[in-house]
Hints:
This protein has a single domain, classed as 5'-nuclease (Rossmann fold, 3-Layer(aba) Sandwich), CATH 3.40.50. Helix content is 51%, strand content 11%. The protein is an alpha/beta fold and 169 residues long. Residues 1-10 have low confidence and may be disordered. It is built from ten helices and five strands.
Amino acid sequence: MIWTKSYLLDNSYIINASPLIFFSRGQKMELLHQLTGHILVPEPVANEIRMRGAKDITAKTLKDTSWIEIITPPPTPEIITEWALGSGESSVLAYSYMNPGIEAIIDDLNGRRCAALLNIPVRGTLGMILVAKKRGLIPKARPVIEELLNAGLYLSRQILDEALKRVDE
């Protein structure tokens, strides 16, 4: 498929391992595709996923999905290095920091705090599901979130309930 400007949605996105794992395990990759159009995966994130083994569903997804592009991230700026994040989070944030307008998809709380401090647009797995509901891509967010919880996503009941209120559920 040829990617045209009209096909891409609002932003470009770069993703960390955990959201990619949850979307693939929860069999929601098509929803992620509808939300993003095209997604970037830094090499450190891809390596983390590949270490799970060739039979892992996320490793297979990474290898077999045409709209996922593995990229070499820029060197991590010191302001991000100081946060002592994992190499995946650091590479995602470094790319977004060096390429304004690229939204980072990260679940790690410290990574999200670092992004907020640096004014990097960031959203987590839960946030992506809420956007899908708001855009009418899914009729209800709760069943999708429940499937991702079964795939390993962790959310406190309080956070889940607060998030669902935002989409009138």
